[in-house]
Each structure stands twice: as structure tokens, then as C-alpha cells.
Specification:
This protein is an alpha+beta fold. The chain is built from 11 helices and 26 strands. It binds ligand LGMQ2O6W, calcium ion and magnesium ion. Pathway: Amino-acid degradation; L-phenylalanine degradation; acetoacetate and fumarate from L-phenylalanine: step 6/6.
């Protein structure tokens, strides 16, 4: 399949096999609306609809779906509609004889260069949940927070552990965040203190957007869950480890994480990721039937290369910190969604579910500085000469997450999820 509407370089994240959705605006058209990235341009989905491109898609009212500042309505339509739109777009982009293509004529009438757009959050996120689905990460953090003997809690291999995050502070890539202030207890023999976090960290994650979801009281099967995940983004679950370690007992993460969570702006659909399915890690003990399902042969993992880079405030270049892969994740995306809804909790279009930090088996794949510096015990070197080091994030450092699936001759990529940490606000308390 070759895009003939615009040029797409082989190393572009946004191949014609990808077609991720996002919400964008431009200086001349400042109202946010639905776009699809291809090569180095963004297609205006509402403009394409006015040319009649999606007229034959049943159940798609273009005005309500594409002339919108968020993707929730499109996410709510479900996989059969997403698939039709995908194949219509591919035909439009690759076939010079396409009737609408002839009517559209020039690229400028339906597309703008990526370098000229402002990206917004892809959806209005009603609820945000974060799982804890990498065995390696859970073991590492458990060892540091609770000691070697309690590293992996007894429930961990039986269910995808998660916590309810804060949807209001999810921000799109490019948004800077201030270092949070909070309560922490640096000396376990003294009372707690208040002030800027001294152990600010990133977490390399991906997150899925829920599609149609489920009615309250009606759980989902694994097969249903498969059809109800719209797509994936990169996510950085910024974490203030000192605030977290002091506050988390016994109810879990709270203010150590809710000051901000960054996501990448382009949502890569599950249909685009289909060719990159792989087996998930072997699950031992065998999960309960609701998390297992009859279709054991289904490949429930995804081979997605992930990287984290840091640009230290006292350095010139980005430096690679983490190189991991979504395939390491113990609990699959569909198991996470099934578990979330099994008690009858209703999931809604645009809900966001983080996978949890994606650490792999070796040190290069550790998805947080907490793990890389082993709770601040060792310095992480950020340049060849060893002159720039970190244990945790410093003010004005930039953290960048990237990810892509590699096929023969093309990529299905995620763009980037970037954020800079600004100094804490002086609260003059
Ligand atoms: O084990 C703990 O107490 C802490 C866990 C976390 O940091 C929660 C979290 O964000 C899970 C994850 O990203 O994997
Ligand atoms: Ca997390
Ligand atoms: Mg967070």
C-alpha cells in the first residue's frame, strides 16, 4: 500500500498503515477539530466529510463526529465504523482514481502541514485509571518500597492491580508542569516536612482510550473488550516518589501523581496495531476464567518499541534513558479492561487507562528513574564524559517518550510525549 496523495518517508511515524487520530487547531482556524496524521500533514476529517468521503458509512453523522473539539463521539461508534473509515481513507490516499480524490484535487484544500498545527487532548477524559501491569516494574518498586520479601504482593499475579487517577490534570504533550509541592518525610525518625518534591520521576507507560464501553451493571467478556478499545497513546505518569512513599499507605497513589500526567496527541488505532500482535508473557498461575476466556490462542500482546530521552537543563542534547517494549507487559490491555468492568463499573467513550510503567527484564528497559538509580543510590550518567548525572529529574529538564512498531518498509509510530519540569511554585507558606 503506497500513499500517492502526499509523500511519506519510510521512517515516518505516520504511514498510510497508521492513520492516527488527533485534535488540532491552527492560527488561522483556532477552533479545535478532528484530524488524521499522514506523513508530514494533517487531514481535516470534517473537510473530507464535506466532500462526501464518508457518506456511505452507516451511523456516522460527520457533523457530530468530526466537527468536534474531541474524539469522544467517534470513539463511541465502535470498531465496525472505525474500520470502514480506515479503509475509505486508505483508498482515498492510495488510489488516484478515487472519485472524491478527483473532486478534492489539491492537498491544500483538506490538509495542513504538521509543523503548523497546535495539538490538543484527543478526548474529554471522564475517568482515568492507571494499572501496574509490568511484573518487572512491580517487583522493582515493591522491593524499594516494601522490601525484598514483600516485593510482589500476593494479589499481583491474580489480577491487574490499578488505582483511580486524576482526569483533570491529564495534559497533552508539550505542556510544561511545575514541580509539585507536598508533604514528605525524608527522615523516618522525624516528623514530615512540606516543600517541593526532591525525588521527581517519570514513568514510561502507554494508555488506551475506551471506545463504546459498557452499560453500568453489564461487565465485558475478553472478546467484547477487544472490540471496545479505540487506540493507544504514549503516557508519562509523572511521579513525586517522596510524596508517594509517605502518603500511599493504605489507599495507594494520590497527590504524588495527581499533579499531572502527560499523553501524546495522536491516538493509534488497534486496527493499525493488528500486524504487530505478539504473545503476552506466560501467566502463571493461570488467571481466573473471566480473565482467561476461551480464546487462549489469541495473541494479546503488542510489539511496540519504546524509548525515553532526557534533555538535562545543563546539557545540549537528548540522552537515552530507557529502551523498552510494550510486549513485556504481563497483563494485556483487554484483561485490564475486562477486570475494570467486571464489578459492573461502566466504562465510557474517552476514558483513559494507563498500562502502568513498562519495565522489561534488563536495566536498559527500566521505565523510571526510581529503578534506574535504584531509589537514588546510584547516579545515572547522561553524557559520554560522565559530567552530567541524575538520580531524579531536576528543574528545567525535558523528558521525551517515543514509540513505534517497525514493519518491512514502514512504521506505525506514536510521535512523542514531551514535557518540561519547571521549578516549584513558591507558596510562601
Ligand atoms: O507499589 C507501589 O506502591 C507503587 C506503585 C506505583 O508507582 C503506582 C503506579 O503508578 C503503577 C505503575 O505505573 O506501574
Ligand atoms: Ca503509573
Ligand atoms: Mg501522574
Amino acid at each position: 500500500m503506497k500513499c500517492t496523495f502526499v509523500e511519506v518517508a519510510p521512517e515516518s511515524d505516520f504511514s498510510v498503515q497508521n492513520l492516527p487520530y488527533g485534535i488540532y487547531s491552527t492560527d488561522s482556524k483556532p477552533v479545535p477539530r478532528v484530524g488524521v496524521a499522514i506523513g508530514s500533514v494533517v487531514l481535516d476529517m470534517h473537510a473530507l466529510a464535506t466532500y462526501g468521503l464518508f457518506d456511505k458509512v452507516e451511523g456516522l453523522a460527520a457533523e457530530q463526529v468530526f466537527n468536534q473539539p474531541q474524539l469522544n463521539n467517534f470513539m463511541g461508534l465502535g470498531r465496525p465504523v472505525w474500520r470502514q473509515v480506515r479503509s475509505i481513507l486508505q483508498n482515498f490516499l492510495c488510489n488516484d482514481d478515487n472519485t472524491v480524490r478527483k473532486r478534492v484535487g489539491d492537498v491544500e484544500s483538506v490538509a495542513v502541514p504538521l509543523c503548523n498545527v497546535h495539538m490538543h487532548l484527543p478526548a474529554q477524559i471522564g475517568d482515568y485509571t492507571d494499572f501496574y501491569a509490568s511484573r518487572e516494574h512491580a517487583t522493582n518498586v515493591g522491593m524499594m518500597f516494601r522490601g525484598k520479601d514483600n516485593a510482589l504482593m500476593p494479589n499481583w499475579t491474580h489480577l491487574p492491580v490499578g488505582y483511580h487517577g486524576r482526569a483533570s490534570s491529564v495534559v497533552v504533550s508539550g505542556t510544561s508542569l511545575h514541580r509539585p509541592n507536598g508533604q514528605r518525610r525524608p527522615d523516618p525518625n522525624k516528623p514530615p516536612v512540606f516543600g517541593p518534591s526532591m525525588r521527581l520521576d517519570y514513568e514510561l507507560e502507554m494508555a488506551f482510550f475506551v471506545g463504546p464501553g459498557n452499560a453500568r451493571g453489564s461487565p465485558l467478556s475478553l472478546e467484547q473488550a477487544e472490540e471496545r478499545i479505540f487506540g493507544l497513546v504514549l503516557m508519562n505518569d509523572w511521579s513525586a516518589r517522596d510524596i508517594q512513599a509517605w502518603e500511599y499507605v493504605p489507599l495507594g497513589p494520590f497527590l504524588g501523581k495527581s499533579f499531572g500526567t502527560s499523553i501524546s496527541p495522536w491516538v493509534v488505532t488497534m486496527d493499525a496495531l493488528e500486524p504487530f500482535r505478539v504473545a503476552q508473557p506466560t501467566q502463571d498461575p493461570t488467571p481466573l476464567p473471566y480473565l482467561r476466556g476461551p480464546s487462549t490462542a489469541v495473541l494479546a500482546g503488542y510489539d511496540i518499541n519504546l524509548q525515553v530521552h532526557i534533555k538535562p537543563h545543563n546539557g545540549e542534547k537528548f540522552h537515552l534513558l530507557t529502551q523498552s517494549n510494550l510486549k513485556h507487559m504481563y497483563w494485556s490491555l483487554r484483561q485490564q479492561l475486562v477486570h475494570h468492568a467486571i464489578n459492573g463499573c461502566n466504562m465510557r467513550p474517552g476514558d483513559l487507562c494507563g498500562t502502568g510503567t513498562i519495565s522489561g527484564p534488563n536495566k536498559e528497559s527500566f521505565g523510571s528513574m526510581l529503578e534506574l538509580s535504584w531509589s537514588g543510590q546510584t547516579e545515572i550518567s547522561l553524557d559520554e564524559s560522565g559530567g552530567i548525572t541524575r538520580k531524579f529529574i531536576e528543574d528545567n529538564d525535558v523528558i521525551r517518550l517515543t514509540g513505534y512498531c517497525q514493519a518491512d518498509g514502514f512504521r506505525v509510530g506514536f510521535g512523542e510525549c514531551t514535557g518540561q519540569i519547571l521549578p516549584a511554585k513558591d507558596l510562601a507558606l
